[in-house]
Design goal:
145 residues; five-stranded antiparallel β-sheet; 3 helices; 9 strands
Length: 145
């Protein structure tokens, strides 16, 4: 009998569309919420995840760790309001802000595309990262031109 198992790290972007006010920015901004985890693979199928940590990325590239309880609520699709108090700086957040998962934050959303960092901008309507040649925002669907 042949059994294939493995363990690896992963990350997923979570759906969140509300504005979050940050004092140091002086305004409310759209944030990107993502979760990192370790998972057990059985025959290349993820069967169990643990060590989940939740993060919030601001449009300016800053990354904050998110309170785990609030992160789980976002992951489950609950109607939750993230506040500045739910976000905190941590060594892990700095690690991910500086490409600690194997690439830049832009690579996390766009993969290892051939787009340069200068080609990436943010939607004026929702703050989602976009590439110059996009006609519509992939998150909010509003026209960009």
């Amino acid at each position: 009998m042949f059994l294939m198992i493995g363990v690896n790290d992963g990350q997923n972007a979570l759906y969140y569309e509300k504005l979050v006010y940050f004092t140091h920015l002086g305004k409310a901004v759209n944030v990107t919420v993502f979760v990192t985890f370790t998972q057990l693979l059985l025959f290349f199928i993820p069967t169990f995840k643990w060590n989940k940590r939740y993060y919030v990325q601001l449009p300016n590239g800053e990354v904050f760790e998110l309170n785990a309880e609030v992160g789980r609520a976002v992951e489950r699709g609950r109607d939750v309001d993230i506040t500045e108090k739910d976000c905190f700086q941590s060594g892990r957040a700095d690690y991910y802000a500086n490409g600690g998962f194997g690439g830049s934050i832009k690579d996390f959303f766009f993969g290892d595309s051939q787009n340069n960092a200068s080609d990436v901008h943010y939607c004026p309507h929702c703050g989602y990262p976009i590439v110059d040649d996009f006609d519509y925002c992939p998150k909010c669907g509003k026209p960009l031109k």
